[in-house]
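Possible regression after last week's pipeline update?

I re-ran a chain I had predicted before the update to compare outputs. Posting the input and the new output here so someone can diff against the archived version. Not blocking, just want to make sure nothing changed silently.
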Amino acid sequence: MSKTYNLTTPLSNGDVEQLKAGDIVYISGIIYTARDAAHKRLVDLLAEGKELPFDVNGAVIYFVGPTPPKPGEPIGSAGPTTSYRMDTYSPTLIENGLKGMIGKGKRNQDVKDACKEHKAIYFGATGGAGALLSKRIISSEVIAYPELGPEAIRKLEVKDFPVTVVNDTYGDDLYQRGREKYQK
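New output (post-update):
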């Protein structure tokens, strides 16, 4: 039976340990945006022993490349992008304190293992609902790599941003569970 939670970032081990695949979570606070080009740069910085452009400890990264905002709005449409492109980089960020990732689609076993070992969560956001999801974003500020355009790293303030737990800290996978249910 899934549960509903309201969480505020940054997330703690206690926050993520209570979550199970299938739970609904409303996230408030600060989350960061990054896609594959930005992820590569972040992992390269860590390999070089350099500081990241934001504190990854307890952070949540949203895999999104938003559209330009309309006048008076903080951001344009902000729907999730396919997450597997970040699979190469996510385990390193998780090892360094990342607690949550938001995207769409399944993750590889290395990401699921890192979530289990280091207590992190992969959340799914509803694809195709970018205009609706953007209504949960209060502010948006580019904080790194502006030359990447929509793929720049942004600091977003969100209020009740709706996500579903896909991969939890116990190794459960909502997508796999759903598939098994219908293969029987």
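Follow-up from reviewer: compared with the archived run. DSSP finds six helices and seven strands in the chain. Marking as no regression found.
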